[in-house]
Amino acid sequence: MNTYRTLNQATGVARTLSAQSDRTVIVYRTSDDKYVTASPKDPVLGTIEGVYRNGYAVRTVLTRL
After folding, report:
1. What pTM was estimated for this model as a whole?
2. Which of 2, 11, 40, 59 is deepest in the core (most CB within 10 A)?
3. How far apart, in whole angstroms, are the C-alpha atoms of residue 24 and residue 21?
């Protein structure tokens, strides 16, 4: 898990990391308005902003509309 100041930073990292070897990355917002990239196995301690797989955002029951 890594923490970023902006959603754009976290999203960029998630897209890059998820493009490698069929990996999934979750981006969520913490209570102090920072953004975290995490793997599906990591605990999510905030509101999920997006899920990325193969370099693209994917719709899941976890993502916001």
Report:
1. 0.87
2. 11
3. 9
3-state DSSP assignment of residue 15: helix
Q: Which pLDDT tens digit goes with each residue over 8-41?
A: 999 999 999 999 878 999 999 999 999 999 999 9
| Best CA proximity match to 28, nearest among 20, 40, 19, 17 | 40
Q: What is the DSSP letter of 48?
A: E
Q: Which residue's structure tokens are 């890594």?
A: 2
Q: What confidence tens digit (pLDDT) does each residue in 34-54 have?
A: 999 999 999 999 999 999 999
Query: What's the first-to-final CA gap in the chain, in angstroms?
Result: 24
Cβ-based burial of 56 (10 A; exposed 0-12, middle 13-18, buried ≥19):
exposed
